[in-house]
Write a structure and sequence with these properties.
- By secondary structure, the protein is an alpha/beta fold.
- It has 3 domains: about 400 residues, Alpha-Beta Barrel (TIM Barrel); about 60 residues, Oligo-1,6-glucosidase, domain 2 (Alpha-Beta Complex), CATH 3.90.400; about 80 residues, Golgi alpha-mannosidase II (Immunoglobulin-like, Sandwich).
- The strands form 6 sheets. It has an 8-stranded parallel β-sheet, covered by helices on one side.
- A hairpin with a 4-residue loop joins β8 and β9.
- α7 runs parallel beside α8 and α11 runs antiparallel to α12.
- It starts with 15 loop residues before the first strand and ends with a strand.
- The structure holds alpha-D-glucopyranose.
- The site of alpha-D-glucopyranose has 9 residues, from loops.
Length: about 550
């Protein structure tokens, strides 16, 4: 039996695995994943070597947004199992030395939550002030803010004539954090799960909880500047942290939408007053020309390097970031920045190395460890995601975008690209379920699956396994500073990490053509060695002049 270490800083050398339960493993024949399914795969996760699981929401929910619309924070959604199943998962994970991080969604609740049900249509309900209500302005919504899933951010409560705010779907009503009772409820929810022994929390869109209280029209944008990193957000987080996170030594990761480095330095400041670490998404907007997600576009390589440089140098010594390419809201990285055909394996390994050697805590999203791809859906009926179907409606039916063009955009940008069921093996339904899955499986599951990856020592799976181990063996990965070696190179992303003891260089060719670069003149290449690469035949000696093959990655370490 492996036990959990007591080191309070465990998460700085850890790698965390994200599970999207609906698509992970179905223990029965429902076509949707469940908690027993997760338990049945814990040995697999242990073999991969991860330190913790981030479990996306399994609470009671009408599942309009796949669990990010919680209707009861204290109950498990029966589609996923029971509280006893959850307790078993926690215990069995701990027995394998794997920690568990819960997803907490407290910017909003489902409109089916009893608080909202009581508040709806009744201005005198004790729960009315748990949400954000405003009178209409000239018979219309109170302001021009837009929902992140399209359309107005306000919905009308017919019975009272007031509107409530929903930054996401209309079934996700924003909580009023100005109300101290709401903050007490949030603490109680977190305490409940911490008391059960969960090790940490991922906080959904947590930098949106504090809204500027005048709710004025946004004449420059969609309203986000009035609630992103809002006026009281740091105060609220410090209050929650002091009341609960610090009491339970919980590790916390905040999902920060459209944030800034300055705010993230504070959210994740090393004094631990707010959160342990932050997710930011700027590096995943390099294929959003002029900030516009809903376009089909190539990615901007130089911008990608600039963004990493900005965050790596800016957080070093001040805060802590999460390192990630994939999650349940992002397309598969191998299809996005790599090459999911001829160089699927090479490019997936290269992309992995290029973030895992940075400072921060890497997150691996289910299926990424054997390079699952976008499914390439061809019919709108195949999509299930509320954001994708809303955007299809708005762009095709209201804005006149052609169906084919929108299908090409969705094939690149839809969140369903990463939500397709896990490809466990080559059996029917990819070993995910015995029944027709809720979302179509990618056609390539017979070649790309976990079983196949585990049988092949050259697979992406074993490369991830090595990256996870390297973080524990090579100290400079955690502590070193960061220097972008070739900011203007049009194919190589290469950076150097340096601490007192060690220097590490990570070289990555982002393209299918061979390319070259020269190591810095103060780097004693002859004394250095390769610790990992994605081509078999690395030379014995490290030379200053480097020739990188298609999508090649090389990790070089020198003892100072
Ligand atoms: C986060 C979640 C996403 C969800 C949204 C609203 O961005 O990751 O899946 O739709 O918040 O809760």
């Amino acid at each position: 039996m492996t036990t959990i270490t007591q080191d309070p800083n465990w998460w700085k050398t850890a790698s965390i695995y994200q599970i999207y339960p609906k698509s992970f493993c179905d223990s029965g024949d429902k076509g949707t994943g469940d908690i027993q399914g997760i338990i049945s795969k814990l040995d697999y996760l242990q073999r991969l070597g991860i330190d913790a699981i981030w479990l996306t929401p399994v609470y009671q929910s009408p599942m309009i947004d796949n669990g990010y619309d919680i209707s009861d924070y204290y109950a498990i959604n029966p589609d996923f199992g029971t509280m006893a199943d959850f307790d078993q998962l926690l215990e069995e994970a701990h027995q394998r030395g794997i920690r568990l991080i819960m997803d907490i969604v407290v910017n909003h609740t489902s409109t089916e939550h009893q608080w909202f049900q009581s508040a709806l249509g009744d201005k005198n309900s004790p729960y009315r002030d748990y949400y954000i209500w405003r009178d209409p302005v000239e018979g219309e919504a109170p302001n021009n803010w837009l929902s992140k899933f399209g359309g107005s951010a306000w919905a009308l409560d017919d019975a009272t004539g007031q509107y409530y705010l929903h930054l996401f779907a209309k079934e996700q009503a924003d909580l009023n954090w100005e109300n101290p009772q709401v903050r007490e409820e949030v603490k109680q929810v977190i305490r409940f799960w911490a008391e059960k022994g969960v090790d940490g929390f991922r906080l959904d869109v947590i930098n949106l909880i504090s809204k500027a209280q005048d709710f004025s029209d946004d004449h420059q944008g969609d309203g986000r500047r009035f609630y992103t990193d809002g006026p009281r957000v740091h105060e609220f987080l410090q209050e929650i942290s002091q009341a609960v996170f610090q009491q339970y030594d919980s590790v916390t990761v905040g999902e920060m939408s459209s944030t800034t480095l300055e705010h993230c330095q504070q959210y994740s400041s090393l004094d631990g007053k707010e959160l342990s670490m932050v997710f930011n998404f700027h590096h995943l907007k390099v294929d959003y020309p002029n900030g516009e997600k809903w376009t089909k576009a190539p990615f901007d390589f130089l911008q990608l390097k600039q963004i990493f440089n900005h965050w790596q140098t800016g957080l070093n010594g001040k805060g802590w970031g999460a390192l990630f390419w994939c999650n349940h809201d992002q397309p598969r990285i191998v299809s996005r920045l790599g090459n999911d055909k001829q160089y699927r394996v090479e490019s997936a390994k290269m992309l992995a190395a290029s973030i895992h050697m940075m400072q921060g805590t890497p997150y691996i999203y289910q299926g990424e460890e054997f390079a699952m791809t976008n499914p390439g859906y061809t019919s709108i009926e195949q999509y299930r995601d509320v954001e994708s179907t809303n955007m299809y409606d708005i762009m095709v039916h209201q804005q006149g975008v052609k169906h084919d063009e929108m299908m090409a955009i969705l094939a690149q940008k839809s969140r369903d690209n990463s939500r397709t069921p896990m490809q466990w093996n080559r059996e029917r339904y990819a070993g995910f379920s015995k029944a027709q899955p809720w979302l179509d499986i990618a056609d390539n599951y017979q070649e790309i699956n976990a079983e196949q990856a585990e049988q092949n020592y050259d697979s992406v799976f074993y490369f991830y396994q090595q990256l996870i181990q390297l973080r524990k063996q090579i100290e400079v990965i955690t502590t070193g500073d960061y220097l972008d070696l070739y900011p203007d190179h049009d194919a190589v992303f290469g950076y150097q990490r340096r601490s007192q003891q060690q220097t590490l260089i990570c070289l990555n060719n982002y393209y299918a053509q061979e390319t070259e670069c020269v190591l810095p003149s103060d780097f004693e290449a002859s004394q250095a060695s390769y610790v990992l690469g994605n081509y078999q035949d690395l030379p014995q000696q490290v030379s200053r002049h480097q020739v990188l093959r298609p999508y090649e990655t090389r990790i070089i370490v020198l003892q100072n």
